[in-house]
Task: inverse folding
């Protein structure tokens, strides 16, 4: 696998850009030789964050959007994204697989999950959400039930969890994310015993007063009631800005026509 990844990285160092800067062509390595068979050129363009079919993504072209260091780490997830390795999808707290969608608690490739959800993918992020030194892969989909899929790599295994829209809002570089609407909490993730766990860190609860119109806000930090100033200080310290979302390279219309 390391040899495959190394070759992929080398091949994409030979990328050539068209004059518009939005479409690229993958070319053969320079030392392939004049008599070497020519592979079909793959043209692609970035999707401007519009949802596209998972099968249309040219994952190896993400090197154009990421730093060299990030892409090297991102490449560790290519086997899961390209269907070479299955992902262990997390079931509910009682280890019972949800039956409605049919993938929680099972081992399926990312592509199979998107097919089952009948959804498209909008963007990808790469961030250490569990704050353990290992960056997780975050896939933002267009499916109403589970728009966010998070994958963690441990050794040669991949572990994934799915989150509904209200359950995973405004993910921060620090690893915190918001769950709720008016009321809600900032949560953080940990990964232990081969599963993700959510922990409430700080939050706000709004209650309507007896007069039926005015509202009262209560603040909490680590499940203990706090005043507004303490909560504000917590936010200033821990909310470090949203994670970076990367738009996706998709096969160009010409290549889609060939298919």
Result:
């Amino acid at each position: 696998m390391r040899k495959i990844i190394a070759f992929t990285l080398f091949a994409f160092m030979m990328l050539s850009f068209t004059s518009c800067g939005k479409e690229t062509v993958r070319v053969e390595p320079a030392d392939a030789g004049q008599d070497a068979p020519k592979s079909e050129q793959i043209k692609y363009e970035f999707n401007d964050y519009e949802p596209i079919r998972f099968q249309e993504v040219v994952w190896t072209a993400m090197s154009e959007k990421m730093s060299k260091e990030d892409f090297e780490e991102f490449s560790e997830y290519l086997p899961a994204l390209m269907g070479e390795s299955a992902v262990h999808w997390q079931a509910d707290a009682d280890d019972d697989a949800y039956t409605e969608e049919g993938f929680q608690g099972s081992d399926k490739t990312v592509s199979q999950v998107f097919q089952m959800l009948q959804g498209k993918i909008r963007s990808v992020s790469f961030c250490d959400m569990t704050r353990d030194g290992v960056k997780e892969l975050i896939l933002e989909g267009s499916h109403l039930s589970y728009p966010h899929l998070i994958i963690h790599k441990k050794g040669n295994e991949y572990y994934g969890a799915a989150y509904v829209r209200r359950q995973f809002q405004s993910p921060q570089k620090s690893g915190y994310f918001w769950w709720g609407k008016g009321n809600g909490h900032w949560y953080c993730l940990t990964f232990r015993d081969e599963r993700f766990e959510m922990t409430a860190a700080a939050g706000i609860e709004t209650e309507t007063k007896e007069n039926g119109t005015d509202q009262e806000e209560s603040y909490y930090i680590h499940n203990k009631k706090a005043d507004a100033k303490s909560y504000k200080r917590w936010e200033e310290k821990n909310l470090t800005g949203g994670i970076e979302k990367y738009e996706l390279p998709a096969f160009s219309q010409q290549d889609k026509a060939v298919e």
